[in-house]
Amino acid sequence: MLPDLTGARWRKASASGGEGGQCVELANVGAVRDSKNPDGPRLNADISGLISAVKRDQVG
Question: Which of 38, 40, 42, 54 is deepest in the core (most CB within 10 A)?
Fold first, then answer.
């Protein structure tokens, strides 16, 4: 079952800046979205697994 993202708090990386570059936002419920298209598709993920993969540079 997909999480309800209605009340999700989205956070953008501090390094993203405001110039429309390539950046994603992470929600407090384990979802990722494109910061330029917040109403577009979202990737649901196990938040702790996603953070671990990012720290190990194993994403992408």
Answer: 42
Tens digit of each residue's pLDDT (9 = 90 or more) over 27-55 = 777 788 888 888 888 888 787 887 888 78
Amino acid at position 1, single letter: M
pLDDT digits (tens, 9 = 90+) for 10-25: 888 776 666 656 777 8
In a domain, 4, yes or no: no
Domain count, the chain: 1
- Global confidence as pTM: 0.53
Element (H, E) at 43: strand 42-44
CA distance 46 to 34: 18
Domain that holds residue 40: 24-60
Q: Tell me the C-alpha distance between 15 and 43, whole Å.
A: 21
